[in-house]
Structure to design on (540 residues):
């Protein structure tokens, strides 16, 4: 039976953010998840009888909210829900299913790389029919609806069996449980030379893929080990756990330190990689060679033609503003355009839909292409493997050849996490006010050439997005960028991005190469005085 439950308004997803992310305990409040899901449905038009994809990264509370979302989809008139065994879907796999099966949209349950478990984070986001995150117009409507909601519709039917493949029915709506991996694997087979990668593993090449007890475990086992022949055991932490084994499923040098240490040791394999909670991010480390996400994007763009899916070349590339400019140099050489967008994947979607770019990425370990409308961790790993299989050189040699050809963009991000929100806002305001007087300021031998608060004009839909980060560019192209995170769940996180271009001196240690700019960035914003922090919480 369908019930109409009365409820009270709340403050849901902020417009422009990629989903509602809160502590599990917040989502466990009565009506909380229901209110948000109804606020999403109330913003959509014309979905009666259509398909909705529902899946999540397996974190704590995933199963409960999937059942709720299925009951609500039925009560609101969807014709079919497509979900996967255990309710498990990586974010890129969900994006693919929406596209492949012509779904109206999808609900993805994840808080990405944030910790999980009863005291961890949970999240709900909506992806539209193109497979990408809801555009700002829609997230604005979700927000407005959460503030005026008075009731939601839900069926009182029993739980669906998510562990059995096949179809069942609730309130006349079909619920189809499919294998989470197989459609995604088929897509990867169209993009990459699986035979070449198989031959690479056969030759003795070794990989360690750390799934961080998150969603990519099943994908890694099926694709890397079973299909491509990497020895069993190549995929570690491959069973998704509700609390990610107590770890923080963020594939960076802090939270994937064990992988990093192994890759820097004599007994390490040839290639190391990791992915985050919901499988959209990637970490790439060669033997004795960490590859920054910004460099990885540039390298993938320069070598993409070695993979069958990209053999005809790239239409264009895009990077988020704080991402290093390394990919721009590749684009220039290829004679294609490189777009600079605000942080967040949704800005790439329009360019991908319009066919203006083929590949895009962010410094925060997200890389992807036009095969889906999300960043895709395993895709990046497979493209790397395809390139390695064709070039038969070490990661370190490929990286060094790239720098020798294009120069090197030394790059680092310094995060000051959970700082006082008012202090962080005051710091940003101080910088904004100071912009007009920054020209000519010195950082070592460098002088500021331009300074602005980044804004973006979307040439596809004509929209404008302002206040996307303080961007200080020096006369040699070096940059210092400040912005506040939009994804944290406690206090504010100040991110400072530091980049220095070098055409010739390629072998320095990163922090040392950036030291003048780091000193400049800290001094200009009085970071220690304003935040009480003399050092960043995380340096990547
Ligand atoms: C962070 C990353 C950004 C990414 C987003 C979602 O956002 O910096 O590149 O798109 O997560 O994965 P932030 O916390 O900086 O707003
Ligand atoms: Zn993620």
């Amino acid at each position: 039976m369908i019930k109409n439950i009365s409820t009270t308004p709340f403050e849901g997803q902020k417009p422009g953010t990629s989903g509602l992310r809160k502590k599990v305990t917040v989502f466990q409040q009565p009506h909380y998840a229901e209110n948000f899901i109804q606020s999403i449905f109330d913003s959509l038009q014309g979905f009666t009888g259509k398909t909705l994809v529902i899946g999540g990264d397996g974190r704590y509370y995933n199963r409960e909210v999937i059942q709720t979302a299925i009951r609500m989809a039925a009560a609101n008139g969807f014709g079919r829900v497509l979900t996967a065994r255990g309710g498990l879907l990586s974010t890129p796999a969900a994006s693919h299913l929406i596209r492949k099966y012509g779904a109206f949209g999808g609900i993805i349950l994840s808080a990405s790389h944030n910790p999980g478990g009863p005291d961890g984070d949970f999240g709900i986001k909506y992806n539209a029919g193109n497979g990408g995150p809801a555009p700002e117009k829609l997230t604005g409507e979700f927000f407005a609806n959460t503030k005026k909601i008075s009731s939601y519709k839900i069926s009182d039917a029993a739980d669906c069996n998510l562990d059995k493949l096949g179809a069942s029915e609730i309130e006349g709506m079909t619920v189809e449980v499919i294998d989470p991996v197989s459609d995604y694997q088929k897509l990867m087979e169209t993009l990459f030379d699986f035979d070449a990668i198989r031959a690479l593993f056969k030759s003795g090449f070794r990989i360690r893929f750390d799934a961080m007890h998150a969603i990519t475990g099943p994908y890694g086992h099926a694709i890397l080990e079973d299909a491509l022949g990497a020895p069993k055991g190549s995929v570690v932490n491959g069973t998704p756990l509700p609390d990610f084994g107590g770890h923080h499923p963020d594939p960076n040098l802090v939270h994937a330190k064990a992988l990093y240490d192994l890759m820097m040791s004599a007994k390490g394999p040839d290639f190391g990689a990791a992915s985050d909670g919901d499988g959209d991010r990637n970490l790439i480390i060669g033997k004795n060679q960490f590859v920054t996400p910004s460099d990885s994007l540039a390298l993938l763009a320069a070598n993409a033609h070695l993979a069958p899916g990209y053999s005809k070349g790239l239409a264009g590339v895009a990077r988020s503003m704080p991402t290093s400019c390394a990919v721009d140099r590749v684009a220039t050489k290829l004679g294609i355009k490189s777009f600079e967008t605000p942080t967040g994947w949704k800005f790439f979607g329009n360019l991908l839909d319009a066919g203006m770019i083929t590949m895009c990425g962010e410094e925060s370990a997200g890389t992807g292409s036009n095969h889906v409308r999300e960043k895709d961790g395993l895709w990046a790993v497979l493209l790397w493997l395809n390139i390695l299989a064709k070039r038969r050189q070490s990661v370190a040699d490929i990286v060094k050849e790239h720098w020798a050809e294009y120069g090197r963009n030394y790059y680092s991000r310094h995060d000051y996490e959970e700082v006082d929100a008012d202090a962080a806002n005051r710091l940003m305001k101080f910088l904004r006010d100071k912009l007009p007087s920054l020209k000519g300021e010195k950082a070592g031998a460098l002088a500021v050439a331009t300074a602005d608060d980044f804004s973006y004009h979307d040439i596809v839909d004509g929209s404008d997005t302002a206040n996307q980060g303080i961007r200080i560019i020096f006369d040699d192209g070096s940059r210092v960028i400040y912005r506040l995170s939009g994804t944290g769940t406690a206090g504010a996180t100040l991110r400072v991005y530091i980049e220095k271009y070098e055409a010739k001196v390629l072998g320095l240690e990163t922090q040392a190469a950036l030291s003048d700019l780091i000193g400049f960035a800290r001094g200009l914003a009085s970071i220690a005085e304003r935040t009480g922090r003399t050092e960043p919480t995380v340096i990547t």
User: Anything to note?
Assistant: Residues 418 and 490 are 6 Å apart (CA to CA). The radius of gyration is 23 Å. The mean pLDDT is 96. The longest helix spans residues 62-76.
